[in-house]
Amino acid sequence: MSHTAHIPSHRKPRRSASKLAVRAGVAGGVLSTLAMAGTASATPVEPVTETLEMPVLNMDLGSEVSSAVTTAADNSRAAAVEGELNAQEENARTGAAAEAKKAKEEAQKKADAEKKAKEEAERKAAAERASRNDGRSSLSSKSTSDEGGSTSDDSANDSVATGSAAAIVSFARAQVGKAYVMGATGPSAYDCSGLVRAAYKQANISLPRMSQDQSLQGTKVSLSNLQPGDILYWGSRGSAYHVAIYVGGGKFVGAQNPSTGIVERSLSYDMPTGAVRIL
Fold this sequence. Notes:
49% of the residues lie in helices and 13% in strands. By secondary structure, the chain is of the alpha+beta class.
């Protein structure tokens, strides 16, 4: 072993070739600058033109950017189309609702108009029928007067109402002029069976409420053998749809319909189907 081996070396470490090259480059640059400055007064300085080079995009990066732009554009178009479809759908719903409402209103107006026309036709028909029957009654009375000078009608053989029959007939005639109302039983309005039932109540006789049942009461009698107080019915017995009270003299009192109300009419006004006698 050397006798100097224990003494640490003071030699500087070697610099790497790259570092030396950098330093050499820097020194060379400085010397070149000084040399140019020294000759600046003698030699005119040429303008330095530098060319800047734009960075070149990596092809893969350009593809990714292009793809992202395309995707964003597609998404924008899809959103616009969806928004347009939603708007059209909402408009369609609104339009359908409006059309349905309009159709319903028109249907209701048409139904109301038809109902009104039907009621008007029924009123006119009832008025014409009443006018014709009144005309026939007048002609019949005139003919009888001209022939025999008498005001008696075809039922001159009717007996005079007495007792319970008189009470029934008197009550029925007292209601003439009042209103006809379906289901009414008095005292200001009646329907047909309600009037008959109320009249018989004056004689302390209780009758069923409905015309069908009233036509089944008592004994069936011929229309040529009527007496005051008999119940007249229209339709078949047991299925009658209308009833009235025979008051004598070939006439009856009945609650006819909403147009006429309660009236006293000749049998020829509306000939009944049959009659029953309860008294």
